[in-house]
Amino acid sequence: MFNETYELSNGVVIPKLGLGTWLLNDEQAEQAVCDAISIGYRHIDTAQAYANEVSVSKGIRSCGVNRKELFITTKVAAEAKSYDAATQSINESLAKLGLDYIDLLIIHSPQPWSEFREGNRYFNENKEVWKAMEDAYKAGKVKSIGLSNFLQDDVENILSNCEIKPMVNQILAHVSNTPFKLIQFCQKNDILVEAYSPIAHGAILDHAEVKAIAVKYGVSVAQLSLRYDIQLGLVVIPKTANPDHMRNNAELDFVISVEDMKTLKQIEAIQNYGEHSFFPVFGENNKVN
User: How many CB atoms sit inside 10 A of residue 100's CB?
Assistant: First the structure.
């Protein structure tokens, strides 16, 4: 799995499988990055909002793998909604990561988290942020730029006003909550879709129908969920600090049949993400078709 990649619209190559670091504290993040890279991962995803960029940097520096072999993603803070604020965010991430460049930089959300999916769409502000992203790209500070949590009209707002098109849109996408129309729109516009929480932040693991299909293939529900997203043409970035889970998440050498993919696409929408339901990205307003 580690050798499988996609090519972004600007020719940059991105691994299909990455390691997510959301909710990992400093100690966990550093060790997880070291463990993942030793196992074979080359794609690491972090964000300013995760408050662990410095620890991710420590893991990168101590892993023993050449920087050029790694693909590092971080995200401009959702609250940075001006050209200057975005520029400051980018420079802070570069400093915290201790890198000369970032492989993929994305806007974490079209709105500040306190206003996620509410009335103010921040269309004009996001144009400013995107301009700062384009300038960072031109300056060589980042190798590719993209979006996260952007709905179709949010993406259209950028497409209609940009000099450089977004290369990625990172969204919530998993069995029982797959925004097919948004995925199709992005793919039609040469925007690669990345799936965060591809295992539904664990909420899908006890789903009886999904478990039955996983048993059929002799794999775990987590492996089935990751393979499902990959067969939709998505990058997957499961978060874990457990080396055994990292290994299992990379063992995806099987193919889900057309019939079973159809069944998985029609699984009833998940209603509850358990203790993590309070996060804006798991709220009712982030369930899109």
Answer: 9
| 53 token code pair | 């960029």
- The reported pLDDT for the residue numbered 275 is 74
How many angstroms separate the CA atoms of 280 and 144, rounded? 26
Distance CA 126, CA 80 (A): 9
Residue 192 is predicted with a pLDDT of 98
What would the pLDDT profile of 189-238 be if each residue is shown by its tens digit?
999 999 999 999 888 998 999 999 999 999 999 999 999 999 999 999 99
Backbone conformation region of residue 274, classed left if phi is above 0, alpha if psi is from -120 to 50, else beta: left
User: How far is it, in rounded angstroms, from Cα 109 to Cα 170?
Assistant: 10
Marked catalytic residue, from 41, 50, 137, 273: 50
pLDDT tens string 8-60: 999 999 999 999 999 898 889 999 999 999 999 999 999 999 999 999 999 99
Q: According to the model, what pLDDT value does residue 288 have?
A: 53
Contacts of 225 (CB under 8 A, 6+ apart): 174, 175, 198, 199, 200, 204, 210
Own/partner contacts of 130-135, CB < 8 Å, gap of 24 or more, are 130/158, 130/161, 130/162, 130/166, 131/83, 132/76, 132/83, 132/84, 132/86, 132/87, 132/90, 133/76, 133/86, 133/90, 133/105, 133/107, 134/162, 134/163, 134/164, 135/87
- Residue 196 annotated to the active site: no
Cβ of 204: how many Cβ atoms within 10 Å? 23
Q: What angle do CA 268, 168, 210 make, to 5 degrees?
A: 20
pTM (predicted TM-score): 0.94
Residue-level pLDDT at 230:
98
Of 81, 75, 67, the residue nearest 114 (C-alpha): 81
Beta-bridge partners for 209 = none
